[in-house]
Give the backbone structure.
Amino acid sequence: MLNTHTPPVTPPWLAAAKRACFALVAGALLAACGGAAKLADLPVYSNAVELKAGESAIGDTLNKNMEQDKAVRDAVGVGGKTEQRGFKLPPDATWEQVKAFYTEKLKADGWSEGMGGIGGNLVSNVMSEVNKSNDMVQTALFSKGNQTLTVLRAVNPTNASEVELILSLSTR
């Protein structure tokens, strides 16, 4: 019997979002142990207010993410860690401004845009395309030595004046 079922066509924006999620997960998994920078030492966007655990749902979630990351790494027997911080951005902080801020500050400190290595440019190119098609969530990756920093800007879909920033530093 012939299969007459035609699989659904994935919209281009969804395919791009899936690739972006894969790139984020791959970046976090590829970056794992010892390293020079600590998240607290990295620049914070102007007028950003930290979302701390116990004071905000995002702060609580990021704290739980770090606990789960440690538990998984311990269980699997790999080193490294992931640190995360969240911030409330000024409502007028555009992605272009946020990305330019981190690109300037991080490159001045020896960071490179992308994940480095053979596939680093590929990941940056994919992220750039995804960012163009979605003004609600944008992501950039930076790398230095054995560390990868993910910079993510998100706009609350029900309140565009709520703009948040998540920094995720993975060390291998």
Observations:
- The radius of gyration is 17 Å.
- The helical segments are 12-30, 57-76, 95-108, 120-133.
- Confidence is low (pLDDT under 50) at residues 10-35.
- The chain is about 40% helix and 25% strand.
